[in-house]
User: Fold this.
Amino acid sequence: MIAVVPLTVNAIFSAHPAAGIPPTGFRWSPDGRRLIYIIASPDRTKPPVVRLYDARSGRSRTILHAKAQVRGSRSRPIAQIAWSPHSDEIAYLNGGDLWVADANGEHAFRLAAGADDPQWSPDGSRVAYVHANDLYVASVGTRHSERLTFGGSATRINGDPDWLYSEELDVAHAYAWSPRGNAIAYLSFDESRVRPFPIQDYLPIVNTVEYQRYPLAGAPNPRVSLRVVDVRTRLSRTLYDGAPHDEYLVSFVWTPDGRGVVDEILDRAQQHLRLVDFARDGRGRRTLWSESSRYFVDVQPAPKFLPDGKRFVYLSARDGVQALYLVDLASGNERRLSGSAPIASIERAGAAGVYVSALLPTRRNLALAYVSLRSGSLRVVSHETGWHDVAMPKHGDAYVDAFSSFTQPPLVRVRQLHSQHNTVLFATPNLARFGLGATRPLEIPSRWGPLDAEITVPNNFDPQRRYPVVVTAYGGPLPVGSAIPSADRWQGLYTFLLAQYGFLVFSVDGPASNDDRVANEHLFRYRMGEIAMAGQLAGVDWLKKQPYVDSSRLGLFGWSYGGYLTAFTLTHAPNVFRSGIAGAPPADWHYYDTAYTERYMGVPQREAAAYRTTSVLPDAKRLSAELLIMQGSSDDNVHLMNSIALLRAFIGAGKQVDYFLFPGARHGVTGIPALRNLYTRMLLWWEHTLLR
Assistant:
């Protein structure tokens, strides 16, 4: 008999957390023989541990402690590690500088200062990188750097995605080497028309202001062009300028013969998308793919070419479900390969078939699958039903499988495609001593059909008792394969801590949040608050019918879009929830960025009524629940003006709300002390508002 130990916030968030620290940042060598991964420090002020796994021996060891830096308003950390094409060296960033080491992490030397986004040349002799908003290339042999582009400034960015493109359009890299290594294609951003927003650090020792170029809905976007620079002459040529038509130039890739660059271009309204093959010499272009929607077209990753260099695979939801398509480069002929199962991502494209991540066997599950190029047949490769996040190398049998489910905490293994052999990289420590409760999946009725939901109950659950319920929500649109609240994956220990304190924890996916069919996402059009709230209200209707639920003691919590959903629901459906916590909530869609907002709302100049009905602010007077608003003072995604606007509206309406600010935090709260404060504060809030 194991003695039950109470679970605490401090045990969840500590230097040695009860659930351990799973590895992340998996980087396979191209030959598939070695794997680099990162063990993050719970305290973001300390460097992560970088480890190397050898697939032949099955052993891992620490190779370095790389000091990561926060990019700031560009919204992604700087801790990249890149393998050389011959798998014999690595390039990595350490404290903002570019370093090179051998495949074992030894014989390291600094190659350049102030670098970002290192990428090896195809022959492995040089490393390109971004410095001060321009592209540079450094010779590994001579350790000499040369500048390739010019004009980089606060308003001109060459080869590096700006905030909007990295945050909302999934552009991780804005430059790429040509197959022969004699040229680099890159995106150039003119930010001069984009309004700078101040992000202030109010602490007296620092007290600095960072200006972020953040285009509000309906305002000017960055003007972006696709260019190619000759590495020898350092002369740039513009292949396409998206500025005249105010277009988004998104993911791009070189054709395998190096003669062209295929770019994904999206109009400002995001209703027309096309893949265009631009000749490298600027003398021609061909449209390889096009699709349109009266709602919107979602951005997809760049095409992935097959080994023959003549065909590529591409994802599209043009037929109502995100599917895999095979396209001939020369003719543009296309063929749909996959069936009704939504394809989340392409993991590896081979001569005979394609490995993909797909929602299988249900939309709650993510599995690794193999699609035959010849027949289109799909075979599931994953072993267990649940949620599999995978990382695959270009070659070899090994791959990383990070698995969890409702009942299985995270388990990270290196598995083999053609054998049962596997190596455990991480297993969640035994949690039996905490006497955790149980999470079970649900389907609840609604006028849109069954909605996916889940509920967590304490280990001493008594169906004769009536419990308060904390409803956790996100509610917003997410890409296919995102871990939506009711996905069959481990929910984290904090959910079980709430259950330990006597709460039931409930989540439901609204009708628009089910990402298995594109028609669901289309429901968000002009109805960002109403349709998201509909799922929560359907969930409440179900909860009220359960004899073990005290429907007079319901709380609602969400962060980011979930924060908006919380504030919107409490003001547009008053008297349903007793209390709520809105974390980093958008208050009004006028205050959010172009690419995200206009996809669902159009521009405010033409859709004034939709912007008015989806805003929290006009209905602040209807608030009847107790509300806690929380946000980071340096939030670069949902700017602080949202919380300030909410507070002003509630004050003007004579409503009392609580507010807490996390100094220096961005869109998410990090660091052990801050996380302990955040989750303790939420626990105390629920005790105060739902248990009294």
